[in-house]
Amino acid sequence: MEVFKNIKIGVFISLVNILIQGVSVLVQNIIANNLGIVNFGHFGILQSDYTIFCAIADFGMATLILAYFGKRATQGSLFTNVLQLRLSMTAVAALAMVVFAFTIRRDSPVFEGELVLALGLLFQHAFFDWFFICGNFWKKLLISKVLHTIAYTTIMGVALCYFHLDSIPAIAMAMVVAALPAFGFGVGNAFSRKVFHITWKTKRFFALMFKSALPYAVASLASFAYLPVGLYTASHFAPPEFLGAYNFAHKLVILASGLMVHFISSSLITLHQADSSKIHVRDQFIFTLFIVLATTPFWLVPQYTLRIIFFGAPWTTDVLAVSSACLRMLTASLVLQAMRMSMISTMLKEKRTVLYGLFITLGGVFNIAVCILGARQLPASNIPLLTLSGDVFLSVILVIYFIANKRIRF
Hints:
With about 400 residues, the protein is an all-alpha fold. The protein has 19 helices and two strands. Helix 2 packs across helix 10 (about 225-235), helix 5 runs parallel beside helix 8 (about 170-190) and helix 14 (about 300-310) crosses helix 15 (about 315-340). The chain is globular. The two termini are about 15 Å apart. About 45% of the residues are buried.
């Protein structure tokens, strides 16, 4: 069955990435202990900002490359053009983050951290993941992640446990340094001197890719109006202690949500090998059930889950209770994402990018509006529920679209 092939590929890519994600969670424990609950909440804002600028650097290109070119993106002149594009966009995003720091975060506790992570944009450990995935270089992808896991563990361990770094900018700099070995491995496997040779064909390729990628980019950036908007809402409308507690639940769900993206990639790979244009309800039900079972600890025993995963956090009874309530509610987002995975991957495979971008953007705008209006009227404890509004909106509109076009098969 196609669904089991999707799960198999998605699980492999997820397990490869969970190496570093697992270590990252361990490091987050020590960061939370060193910074304290309130500053840990601010640190969550910094990391969310960084993720947004990573999306700007990507500009939907990774999805576009996978959907349009596949393995061809790792060969010949096309590879050179793709690499040139990726490097150029990363440099632009880094500059944009510096401007953002001086204009929006100038008086924020994360200002200096923003400047440090702007530098980090240039040396992302995952910069060459698109090359390994498109070329089916699974062993190299695994080596890259293992290398980063070792480097990240060692460097962050020394920085946090030996030097006891307890300031946001110092911790951010340690994270940048920790990414360098994996970035260097990527450079060694996927870098070409031809990248410095810019021709009129290169410029034309850039123009065509920007035009084609715009819907993907809009959709990618609009996706930050879903789960991350809850964190920003909490930072503006809730006490600092709530932001810190919310950040623990937010990090877990964002981690799981990031792994969901790999299942979309696996679904795209499978769809390219299949002729069916229908959404199979049976397959979708099986995958959703798989995600429900995988996230059982999040909604069934959230306090134990948080204590186990964030074992080094300076928990108090109140902080744990708030964080547990947030985690239980936010987990519904993962189920909704699972329900619409096949619909999204089908739209990407069929290059319905404008419509896809429109749906994501409408859901994002709706989510922001609900969060802002709701947070002004309701207690802070309702922010997780408000954050789910965009997920519900997007899921409903996708189901309506596929039913209306008779694309669902029972």
